[in-house]
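Quick question, first post here. What does this chain look like in 3D?
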Amino acid sequence: MELNQRRRKVIPTLVYLNNPWTYWKARFNLMKMQMFWDREFVEEEFIRGAKKAAVVLTDIIRNQDMSTISKLTTPLGYQQITRDMMLSRDDVRLKLVRFDTEHIRRAIPMKVVTKVNYGRKYCFIDMMFVGLRNTKDFDSIEELVEVNRILQSLDADLRLTQEVISTPHRIIFAEIFIRFRRDCSENSLEYYHQHPSRFANEKDWAVGFYKILSFDVFHYNPRA
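> Answer (accepted):
Ran it through. Tokens below.
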């Protein structure tokens, strides 16, 4: 049983190269934000929460569930995400983007910006998430059947040869970009109590932009 578990979770080693200048600039701005704007910011906690947000939002978009998006987003984020949902509802590939937090292999802060807008202090963090999941790595029979059905449809459209299709493992790959925003003003808690909204309370991190930048299903033979 344990051997089967390991086999169905097999993925290739991920080497994800980031621009050194972008990386160190983001690191510096994170420290500056923590020192001067948000003393309570803990990067590890933010990354953990950001991964969960990426998984939840991806599930919402895949399931076309517009009723819950506003609880996680800014007003502009809501407009952008719902518009993109409408445009992508017939894209069968979206049905394959099924990640849990364990499948988010990289979560990289790409850009950190602080701004003052109408007297309120906002922090923005752009995150890049890299997800990898073996198409055998699903617990429910229903999901396995659906994933295989979608893969067969894609194989037919791409006219893949039997040699390619019979590769031992197929890996779902996606790069997801999310912009998070938070109101770091000193009176943010009081402000949002006085100005209730159906959107996310921005004293916590809210999503201002979401995009699946790239997606692929590639074949992987660990013995090759």
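DSSP finds seven helices and four strands in the chain.
The radius of gyration is 20 Å.
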